[in-house]
Amino acid sequence: MSAGPKLPLARAREIADRLVADLAPVVTRCEVAGSVRREKELVGDIEIVIEPREIDSGFLGGTAPDVEILQALARRWSGASLEKGTRADARQIAAMLPEGVKVELYLVLPPAQWGSILAIRTGPAELGRFVMERFKRRGLRHVNGHLENAETGALVPTATEEDYFAAAGLPCLPPQRRHELLGGFHG
């Protein structure tokens, strides 16, 4: 969460929609997360979860996530350099927009799973800590955007947010109501 000035939700959503429109042609999928997705009245930063498209890596016919195009877009948006995510294997790209709001792109790079990253980046932060404790009690751990069995290291699929919350024994509430999970479950 940003410590700087906050934007009204309508203005933040307008900016987020513009960024998503820029991203749509160059990614497999993307979705706005964070306080915009939770429909908070004031928004400190804009978070977007992205599944990058794969491009030819030039190495034995393999493919790799196209991170460079995302970095180029973020540089164009900011009109300057990036705050984070300058390496080709970046999982997060951050830039300050001319509107004075920070945009953070969270990349779902394998073995990371879409449902895990989207749920975590949607928040709120207190819910993330709560869910991590539940995972721990269930013999699971969350590592680099994916859930795994703490004993065997086997991947626990979380392709959707429903999968992510089910692994914690929680219902998947709409983003605007997720804070309710903090008060309703203690087991």
Describe the structure.
Helices cover 34% and strands 24% of the residues. The chain is built from seven helices and eleven strands. The chain has helices at 9-23, 34-37, 67-78, 114-122, 125-137, 161-167, 181-184, and strands at residues 7-8, 27-32, 42-43, 45-52, 54-56, 63-65, 92-96, 102-107, 140-143, 146-149, 155-156. The strands form four sheets. Strands 2-4-8-7 form a four-stranded mixed β-sheet, sandwiched between helices. Strands 9-10-11 form a three-stranded antiparallel β-sheet. Strand 5 (54-56) and strand 6 (63-65) form a beta hairpin. Helix 4 packs across helix 6. The model has no long low-confidence stretch (mean pLDDT 91).
Q: Would you summarize the structure shown here?
A:
Helix content is about 35%, strand content about 25%. With about 190 residues, it is an alpha+beta fold.
Number of E-state strands: 11
Q: Structural class of the secondary elements?
A: alpha+beta
Sheet with the most strands? 4 strands, mixed
Gyration radius, to the nearest Å?
17 Å
Question: What are the key terms here?
Answer:
187 residues, alpha+beta, 4-stranded mixed β-sheet, 3-stranded antiparallel β-sheet, 11 strands, 34% helix
Topology:
Layout: E1 7-8, H1 9-23, E2 27-32, H2 34-37, E3 42-43, E4 45-52, E5 54-56, E6 63-65, H3 67-78, E7 92-96, E8 102-107, H4 114-122, H5 125-137, E9 140-143, E10 146-149, E11 155-156, H6 161-167, H7 181-184
Parallel strand pairs: 4-8
Antiparallel strand pairs: 1-3, 2-4, 5-6, 7-8, 9-10, 10-11
